[in-house]
């Protein structure tokens, strides 16, 4: 089912961006009210100790949801990636994280606009290791049921807001030079994150797939980007 579903969706996506085919659209049903959502509460687990147990429970719940909607022939793809809530985008910098049922929150850790000078991103941080472990687990154990996605990323401004809190917006006026330094720090910190193209066999799926096809059709991918990214969609 997985291969057939992907082939059908890919054919429709290619047709969508075929200028000779005329207008079209991509249909993705995000949720079916009658099915509901089977939660796997984040706040019932201990991380990183329960990482693999949590990821297994989440994959099993999502598999049941996809089986229930298997007859729905839309353009959605059964994709899967590690998920730990919104704090996953900044917790690797350090500091406390509070888990809720379906998301998490990273507590601001900077008491001053130039506090970033005392921070040092750690490529071996436990949060990054959880993602690496989770991605490898999903690729090894769940590739027959899902297409394994790469995680998203926050931009430097979002990351700065997470670790400084809303005081960041006062800093724009009170300490603009410190904010520029914080932005540079956040750019460097984001380079610690795993990137989709770091693996030669990585595949960009879901919205990434659609977005790249759109950019390519409009001629907005530069030759180096095109050579590197488009083979991932094949």
What attributes does this structure have?
two-stranded parallel ribbon, mainly alpha, 4 strands, 234 residues, single chain, 8 helices, two-stranded antiparallel sheet
The counted number of beta strands is 4
* Average residue-wise pLDDT: 79
Large-scale geometry: globular
Count of discrete alpha- or pi-helical segments spanning 4 or more residues: 8
Percentage of helical residues?
A: 40-55%
Detail the poorly predicted runs: 196-207
What amount of the residues lies in strands? Answer: under 5%
Task: Assign the structural class, choosing from mainly alpha, mainly beta, alpha/beta, alpha+beta, or little secondary structure.
Answer: mainly alpha
- N-end to C-end Cα span: 18 Å
Cα-atom radius of gyration: 20 Å
The largest sheet is: 2 strands, parallel
Q: Looking across the biggest beta sheet, what order are the strands in? A: 1-4
The ordered string of helix (H) and strand (E) elements is: HHEEEHEHHHHH
If you had to describe this structure to a student in words, what would you say it looks like?
It is built from 8 helices and 4 strands. By secondary structure, the protein is mainly alpha-helical. It has a two-stranded parallel ribbon with strand order 1-4. A two-stranded antiparallel ribbon has the order 2-3. Helix 2 (51-68) crosses helix 3 (126-142). Mean pLDDT is 79; it is low at 196-207.
């Amino acid at each position: 089912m997985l291969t057939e579903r992907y082939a059908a969706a890919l054919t429709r996506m290619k047709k969508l961006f075929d200028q000779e085919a005329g207008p079209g659209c991509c249909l993705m049903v995000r949720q079916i009210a009658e099915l509901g959502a089977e939660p796997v509460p984040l706040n019932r687990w201990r991380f990183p100790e329960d990482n693999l147990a949590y990821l297994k429970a989440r994959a099993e719940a999502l598999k049941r949801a996809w089986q229930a909607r298997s007859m729905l022939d839309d353009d959605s793809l059964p994709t899967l990636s590690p998920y730990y809530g919104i704090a996953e985008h900044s917790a690797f910098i350090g500091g406390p994280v509070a888990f809720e049922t379906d998301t998490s929150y990273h507590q601001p850790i900077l008491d001053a606009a130039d506090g970033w000078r005392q921070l040092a991103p750690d490529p071996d941080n436990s949060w990054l290791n959880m993602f690496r472990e989770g991605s490898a687990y999903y690729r090894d154990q769940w590739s027959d049921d899902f297409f394994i996605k790469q995680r998203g990323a926050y931009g430097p401004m979002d990351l700065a807001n997470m670790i400084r809190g809303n005081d960041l917006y006062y800093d724009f006026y009170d300490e603009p030079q410190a904010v520029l330094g914080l932005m540079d720090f956040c750019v460097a910190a984001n380079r610690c994150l795993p990137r989709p193209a770091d693996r030669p066999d990585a595949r960009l799926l879901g919205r990434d797939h659609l977005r790249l096809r759109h950019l390519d059709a409009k001629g907005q991918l530069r030759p180096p980007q095109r050579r590197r990214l488009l083979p991932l969609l094949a």
